[in-house]
Design goal:
- The structure is a single chain.
- The chain has 10 helices and 15 strands.
- By secondary structure, it is an alpha/beta fold.
- It folds into 2 domains: 157 residues, VC0802-like (2-Layer Sandwich); 178 residues, Vaccinia Virus protein VP39 (Rossmann fold, 3-Layer(aba) Sandwich).
- The strands form 2 sheets. An 8-stranded mixed beta sheet has the order 2-3-1-4-8-7-5-6. It has a 7-stranded mixed beta sheet with strand order 11-10-9-12-13-15-14.
- The longest helix has 15 residues.
- It is elongated.
Length: 345
């Protein structure tokens, strides 16, 4: 087990932490959380876990091997980093750079650029034969100032948000205003904890957002929708992003032409831009969940989005599901989404 830390997206207060833990559990990596700070989580785990996190995560930004952790004061930082075994992380003749990121108003008396320079000097003094290379280094040392703490380490991977931007709803061949952003959809897929090759069902597939994100991390996907035009649009979007579904058809979510799947990830219709075909959203969700235990086994998960006002956890408990966690996402004045993870008892 190695000390690792992850700098997380600041887009939501709880989802990035839960997504990272869900990926670790889905991929079978035992881990121990050693600390949580604003936009940072520290864990002990096999460093091999960084590969699936970098491949799957939407809300993790930078993955690091931890070298030093201390109070965010100049004296503490230089004492701690200076006494760390830096030679274990950098070899002679290798080039490096130091990068510092500040979260919020942490340690306002410290200047990031000066800290980068001085820590670079500490490393140069400790590991002989190395050089600084600002644009294309062999190694990047990464530090975060957050919550009046400083955490410093060797960067192992960075997840860039650009691919998710390229899959945002208006970039797809088929657009609908109710479509969920790609990053949130990927996060929901991860919260359901599928493994590569697992079969994921979306019974309200709409523009295929969930199916695309699941397919891109190696899952098999099957989708249904009550409207023919949405199925046609889903097919166009899936083809555009190179995802081949196991099945895609017009069907009622209460009577799906499928038996068992490994998990369900879905965003049923609600809100001003969605068509509920004359049914109340709460009834749509309840009708679907009342049949969902046919499709998943004991201990398997459903990750579902719904308006906060329908109190999905109460519906789930009534129908025999265990609510695992919930996260609330502001959309606009009249809509707050609840992202709920449910487990079949």
């Amino acid at each position: 087990m190695t000390n690792l830390f992850f700098q997380l997206s600041g887009e939501h207060p709880t989802l990035p932490f839960s997504e990272l833990k869900a990926i670790l559990e889905a991929e079978g990596f035992g881990h121990q959380v050693t600390g949580k700070l604003r936009q940072v989580i520290r864990i002990q785990a096999d460093p091999e876990c960084v590969k699936p996190i970098a491949f799957r995560s939407a809300l993790t930004r930078i993955c690091n091997m931890e070298i030093a952790y201390c109070d965010a004061t100049a004296r503490e930082i230089f004492d701690k980093v200076g006494s760390s075994p830096l030679e274990n992380f950098l070899q002679e003749s290798e080039t490096f750079v130091v990068r510092i990121r500040r979260i919020g108003e942490s340690a306002p008396d410290l200047v990031g650029s000066e800290l980068e320079k001085k820590l670079g000097e500490v490393i140069l003094d400790r590991v002989k034969g190395t050089k600084v290379h600002l644009t294309n280094p062999d190694k990047t040392f990464f530090g975060v100032l957050t919550g009046n703490k400083f955490i410093f380490g060797l960067k192992l991977a960075e997840i860039v948000p650009k691919p998710f931007m390229e899959r945002r709803p208006r970039k797809r061949p088929f657009f609908h205003p109710s479509a969920m952003p790609a990053k949130l959809a990927r996060c929901m897929v991860n919260l359901a904890q599928p493994k590569r090759g697992d079969l994921i069902l979306d019974p309200f597939c709409g523009t295929a957002t969930m199916l695309i994100e699941a397919g891109l991390i190696g899952c098999r996907v099957v989708g249904f929708d009550a409207q023919k035009r949405m199925i046609r649009g889903s097919r166009r979007n899936l083809e555009h992003f190179g995802v081949e579904p196991e099945g895609l058809a017009v069907a009622d979510a209460k009577k799906l032409p499928i038996t068992k799947v490994d998990c369900i990830v879905t965003d049923p219709p609600y809100g001003r831009a969605s068509t509920t075909m004359g049914h109340e959203t709460a009834q749509i969700v309840e009708d679907f969940l009342s049949e969902a235990d046919v499709h998943i086994g004991k201990g398997q998960r459903i990750c579902i989005a719904s308006p906060k006002t329908i109190h999905i956890k109460s519906i789930a408990r009534k129908l025999g599901f265990k609510p695992v966690e919930s996260h609330f996402v502001y959309v606009h004045r009249s809509l707050i989404r609840e992202i709920a993870v449910l487990e079949r008892n």
